[in-house]
Amino acid sequence: MGVERIQTLAFSNQLKELPPQFIRPVNERPENTKAVEGVTVPVISLSQPHHHLLVREVAEAASQWGFFLLTNHGISPWLFKLLQEVGEQFFALPQKEKEAYANDPSNGNFEGYGTKMTKNLEEKVEWVDYFFHIMAPSSKVNYDKWPKNPPSYREVTEKYNKEMLRLTNEVLELLSEGLELEKKTLKSSLGDEKIELEMKINMYPPCPQPELALGVEPHTDMSALTLLVSNEVSGLQIWKDNKWVAVDYLQNAIFVHIGDQLEILSNGKYKSVLHRSLVNKECKRMSWAVFVVPPHEVVIGPLPPLFNDHDPPKFSIKTYAEYRHCKFNKLPQ
Ligand SMILES: O=C(O)CCC(=O)C(=O)O
Ligand SMILES: [Fe+2]
């Protein structure tokens, strides 16, 4: 049997009520866990002329928030527009055409078109469909898994991939310097040129009762970094000082999340940010998350300069494959 897609459900006979599998327990519902007012997330401009100030801003945001918005990063607004267009065009294809890309997460491979399924009745379903594929390195790319329609999907996404590689280098250098490490340290600890970039397009259709549902439930990303852009609809919230903080849409800004692998390498000096996304009654929200991850065989643990007798290692050492296995299966790390 096929998977029930959120997009199909959302548009079937003008759904008025949220089906029970999407209704969150009372203590998780957005209506009972509202974001605080008046708190704004850090915005960092890459055109800051004083390098040492830029390093400090990045390091402070990464350690206090695990999150920041990046502006003046050199990516053309046109490229964001094209990326958005090809993603929207894919999701607007007839359902049958999209199903040809249906993924099979049961073997640990998420590439393709997907909707998360639940393992038991208590577990709730997220109000989101996605498309996931590897973008880099080229040796790991399987173009058969990429949308062939619209035909420009590949060209646009390859352009975006180049920009993401450039920005990954730049941000990892700043983050290394912020830990008083040599510039190349974090990148080389993550596999250097073997670092992988994964694209996940999240598609959140309008939801009849958004106050009871979640688009993506609270989680930290298992990546090292996540570089995300969205359409003009806000919805992302991050956890800071025991409260949810809403991240307002900022045109052409890139949302940078510190993920688990950087928290481990930095021995907890940088924080992997807990975040969730909300959905919307009238508007469709889409986001494009690029996960920067080490290849499976790379061993990740706190970097030796960052622990000592007084400040011992806070995390165990394991390969990224092992880490991933534990996280997927909710096993202790
Ligand atoms: O859509 C968003 O803003 C967040 C998505 C997200 O957290 C994820 O895909 O890991
Ligand atoms: Fe995430």
Automatic annotation (TrEMBL):
Cofactors named for this entry: L-ascorbate
Keyword Oxidoreductase listed: yes
Keywords: Dioxygenase, Flavonoid biosynthesis, Iron, Metal-binding, Oxidoreductase, Vitamin C
Domain (Fe2OG dioxygenase): residue spans on this chain: 194-294
InterPro entries xrefs: DIOX_N, IPNS-like_FE2OG_OXY, IPNS-like_sf, Oxoglu/Fe-dep_dioxygenase_dom, Plant_2OG-oxidoreductases
Pfam families membership: 2OG-FeII_Oxy, DIOX_N
Single GO BP term: pigment biosynthetic process
GO molecular function, one term: L-ascorbic acid binding
Entry similarity comment: Belongs to the iron/ascorbate-dependent oxidoreductase family.
Protein known as: Fe2OG dioxygenase domain-containing protein
Lineage summary: Eukaryota, Viridiplantae, Streptophyta, Embryophyta, Tracheophyta
